[in-house]
Amino acid sequence: MSRFLSPRFAGLEAYTPGEQPRDQQYIKLNTNESPYPPSPEVLARLNADEVKRLNLYPDPEGKILKEKLAKLYGVEKENIFLSNGSDDILNFAFMAFCDEERGAAFPEISYGFYPVYADLYHVPHVKLPLKEDFSIDYKDYCDINKMVVVANPNAPTGMEIGLFEIEEILKANPNHVVLIDEAYVDFGGTSAVGLVGKYPNLLVSMTYSKSRSMAGARLGFAIASKEIIEDLEKIKFSTNPYNINRLTLAAGEAAVDSDAYYKENAKKIMATRETTVKDLKALGFTVLDSKANFIFAKPPKISGADFYAQLKKKGVLVRHFEKEKIRDFVRITIGTDEQMEVFLQKTQEVLADR
Ligand code: PMP
């Protein structure tokens, strides 16, 4: 910390992203990317002509992309907000809807960025424990008088919370935004987007980073009532109006045009997930019920930390969280069938050494 940094950030603990190593080629199952490339339409769109236009600013409103997404999700373009990855939505939401008095609530075990944004903006927050079985108890979020942030499916557990429970949370907090983070919804989850017309306090955030194979391009979007979107736009236009670059906007448009390709990939990932779960259970793993493109699993005979380290030595990268209650587990992103075969073989080798 330099002497120039405002003292208000002195205690801030920044978010630690998952490893993105460049030292060797790993079978990379640690940060929930899609193992499949962007669609041929996206690749074709990122051509020399598009690159030549980089001298020009992008459309700060992203009108074309909003129109396409609105059509895809059955809403109006005024219900859509575009962002630089969905982290950007979280950032804007904490900035817009919370302050020193207006707090936030989220699960104790969830996406690690929620408490960081809360700390960044000095938002008082409560981290609510999960139930014994790692599910979210919706009753904890009712009448809490705070912005609620819930990932559905949750990360790193992969477990789902139902729409009934989400509606109860929405009804119980009419004066606060309820942010449902649907980063992983396309792998068999249930989206709350259909509730947007009914609940003006609902904010659904989504990303191109997972099912749409564009983690490297940084594109996210939110769907919510027009009033919430207007608030987010106000904050965006007061901080970084060009938060999405031209190439990403173009790629995002082409990805909507090839929605069927991504749906097919999501199906493949779900099928691979089910095979992997079966194989791991046969080896003695405890595996939580996942609706995401990853699984949360506890290996037999070996600690989560050792399993992670041994696999890494063998060229397979998974994610381990050094956090009480979940340190026995690892989070494994679902790759291609071929990648998961290697993962399984290396897993068997690690367990055989015990
Ligand atoms: N929400 C959840 C639950 C996540 O796990 C992640 C990233 N891994 C994000 C949001 C943010 O993803 P991105 O910024 O790439 O859209």
Q: How would you describe this structure in keywords?
A:
354 residues, Aspartate Aminotransferase, domain 1, Aspartate Aminotransferase, domain 2, 2 domains, 3-stranded antiparallel sheet
Strand order of the largest sheet: 2-8-7-6-5-3-4
Determine the structural class based on helices, strands and strand pairing: alpha/beta
- Note the total helix count: 11
Gross morphology: globular
How many beta strands in the DSSP annotation?
12
Give the H and E element order.
EHHHEHEHEEHEEEHHHEEHEEH
The biggest sheet, with number of strands, parallel, antiparallel or mixed sense and barrel status, is: 7 strands, mixed
Text of the CATH class of the largest domain: Alpha Beta
Termini separation? 44 Å
Tell me the CATH topology of the largest domain: Aspartate Aminotransferase, domain 2
Average pLDDT figure: 97
Ions, cofactors and other ligands present here are: 4'-deoxy-4'-aminopyridoxal-5'-phosphate
Q: Count up the domains.
A: 2
Rounded radius of gyration (Å)? 20 Å
Overview of this protein structure:
The protein is an alpha/beta fold and 354 residues long. It folds into two domains: 7-37 and 260-352, Aspartate Aminotransferase, domain 1 (Alpha-Beta Complex); 40-258, Aspartate Aminotransferase, domain 2. The chain is 36% helix and 13% strand. The chain has eleven helices and twelve strands. It has helices at 40-45, 48-52, 63-73, 85-97, 113-120, 163-172, 226-239, 246-257, 259-282, 304-313, 337-352, and strands at residues 27-28, 80-83, 104-107, 125-128, 147-151, 178-181, 202-207, 220-224, 286-287, 294-298, 316-317, 330-333. Strands 2-8-7-6-5-3-4 form a seven-stranded mixed beta sheet, with helices on both faces. A three-stranded antiparallel beta sheet has the order 9-10-12. α5 (113-120) links the parallel β3 (104-107) and β4 (125-128). It is globular and about 55 Å long. The model has no long low-confidence stretch (mean pLDDT 97). It binds 4'-deoxy-4'-aminopyridoxal-5'-phosphate. 4'-deoxy-4'-aminopyridoxal-5'-phosphate binds next to α4. Pathway: Amino-acid biosynthesis; L-histidine biosynthesis; L-histidine from 5-phospho-alpha-D-ribose 1-diphosphate: step 7/9. Its EC number is 2.6.1.9. Its cofactor is pyridoxal 5'-phosphate.
